[in-house]
Task: inverse folding
């Protein structure tokens, strides 16, 4: 019987493991942490009973994932929940850009920018069932629906700043800028619109949903599927150069530099050189809050939104993203706030609610961004500070200690500059190959990149099985 090991149990590791197990490969997952899930873990704390997400929180990429669609998630106990509004981007004058579930409702909300929003997202969202698998696949593969995909792909080489010029109102420009900033890239650089466009397309098609009971519920569902297929998991096992698995297939859900350290001279020199030169993106500095009575946002829509982006107008968001990419900490960083409890009240305890937030900071930022995050929330919600009951802080160093893939707090597993976005960790048409027989990389460093969609794992395992002739 063919044997397989997957090192690391993030969404991509679990997707790879399920794919191997479905093909009849006797598969074991080795996970360094105490629990499975990687970026899909939740914790109870700050106030007993309050549920927080460690990393991924909002799931357009998971709900829209062709891989997750192959699993009966409801049978595995997973329920998706939505807030009334998907995402709100408040501005200093009290107004906001508002993202609603559908393209039409968002366009109606955006007034004179509605037509531009519809022009950008209407067709790709209508065609999402056909273009989703190509959007969430290696970008160099010949697409199955090239015409439909062209409708999505045509503007993606453009800088986010160029697409922002399609909008005239500060509300629409801010809304676009906040989502584009998920790329952690200077917004005037080529292809900086690609990740934002992908999130918005998947989001309009699938919703910015949260997992009831916390994102850990997604990992539990994937684990149950894997174990039902006969898969085995060992937690508390960190794979190093000293204990590289000896199975027919080994897939690494790790960042390329760690793969290079683990495999060392077994990697062909060209692969090792490329992995050692792998470029990091900026970092995330995370603060979870327990908040009495929620956040007193000035803008009423922000009180109903699952996600709130804080960074002022498009120009300010662009300036902060440029600064962090250059290694400078801005005074007012871009901050993402998650109010998952609005979709899933089971996460709250009475009137005390869990609030998820992180700021974009330079990679390896060694300072404390807590006050900057609080000040940014306070800017759009005066009185917030008085409502804080407790906090849990994770600096960039602690982020990397929590998950070695997030080096320097780089939660996207590598800079998503044009070369790494298109090719992955090295320039090749086979981004999952390591050049060592039976060994592959399957983490978010490979196409299609970050997000809890599991598609890197699916594609890597499919490649491994193809080469085995399965
Ligand atoms: C703060 C934050 C917010 C985010 N928000 C979102 C969001 O809202 N929506 C979304 O879709 N995505 C979000 N993401 C991104 C998402 O979590 C990641 O893109 C995704 O988890 C990557 O999955 P992965 O399987 O590649 O690796 P990971 O999830 O990084 O998992 C890798 C696993 O490998 C283990 N490991 C590492 N080294 C070893 C070793 N040597 N031996 C054994 N095991 C090892 C780690 O412990 C970890 O469990 C967020 C991430 C963070 C940190």
Result:
């Amino acid at each position: 019987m063919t044997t397989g090991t997957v090192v690391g149990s993030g969404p991509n590791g679990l997707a790879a493991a399920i794919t191997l197990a479905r093909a009849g490969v006797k598969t074991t997952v080795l996970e360094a942490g105490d629990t499975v899930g990687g970026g899909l873990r939740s914790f109870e704390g700050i106030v007993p009973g309050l549920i927080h997400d460690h990393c991924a929180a909002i799931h357009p990429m998971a709900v829209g994932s062709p891989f997750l669609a192959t699993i009966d998630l409801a049978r595995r106990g997973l329920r998706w929940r939505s807030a009334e509004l998907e995402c709100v981007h408040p501005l200093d004058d009290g107004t906001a850009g508002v993202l609603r579930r559908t393209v039409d409702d968002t366009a109606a909300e955006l007034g004179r920018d509605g037509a531009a929003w519809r022009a950008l997202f209407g067709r790709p969202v209508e065609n999402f069932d056909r273009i989703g698998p190509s959007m969430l696949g290696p970008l160099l593969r010949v697409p199955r629906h090239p015409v439909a995909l062209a409708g999505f792909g045509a503007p993606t080489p453009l800088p986010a700043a160029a697409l922002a010029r399609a909008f005239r109102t500060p509300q629409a420009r801010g809304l676009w800028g906040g989502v584009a900033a998920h790329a952690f890239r200077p917004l005037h650089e080529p292809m900086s619109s690609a990740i934002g466009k992908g999130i918005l397309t998947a989001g309009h098609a699938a919703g910015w949903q949260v997992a009831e009971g916390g994102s850990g519920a997604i990992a539990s569902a994937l684990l149950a599927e894997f174990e039902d297929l006969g898969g085995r998991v060992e937690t508390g096992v960190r794979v190093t150069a000293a204990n590289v698995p000896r199975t027919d297939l080994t897939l690494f859900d790790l960042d390329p530099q760690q793969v290079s350290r683990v495999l060392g001279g077994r990697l062909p020199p060209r692969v090792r050189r490329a992995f050692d030169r792998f470029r990091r993106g900026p970092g995330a500095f995370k603060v979870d809050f327990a908040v009495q009575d929620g956040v007193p946002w000035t803008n009423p829509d922000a009180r109903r939104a699952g996600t709130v982006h804080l960074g002022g107008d498009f120009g300010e968001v662009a300036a902060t993203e440029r600064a962090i990419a250059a290694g400078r900490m801005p005074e007012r960083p871009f901050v993402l706030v998650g109010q998952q409890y609005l979709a899933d009240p089971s996460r709250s305890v009475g009137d005390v609610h869990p609030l998820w937030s992180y700021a974009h900071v330079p990679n390896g930022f060694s300072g404390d961004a807590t006050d900057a995050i609080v000040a940014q929330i306070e800017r759009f919600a005066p009185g917030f500070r008085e409502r804080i009951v407790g906090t849990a802080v994770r600096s960039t160093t602690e982020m990397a200690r929590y998950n070695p893939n997030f080096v320097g707090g780089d939660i996207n597993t590598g800079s998503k500059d044009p070369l790494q976005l298109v090719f992955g960790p090295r320039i090749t048409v086979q981004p999952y190959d390591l050049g060592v027989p039976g060994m592959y990389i399957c983490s978010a460093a490979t196409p299609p990149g970050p997000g809890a969609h599991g598609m890197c794992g699916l594609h890597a395992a499919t490649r491994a099985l193809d080469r085995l002739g399965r």
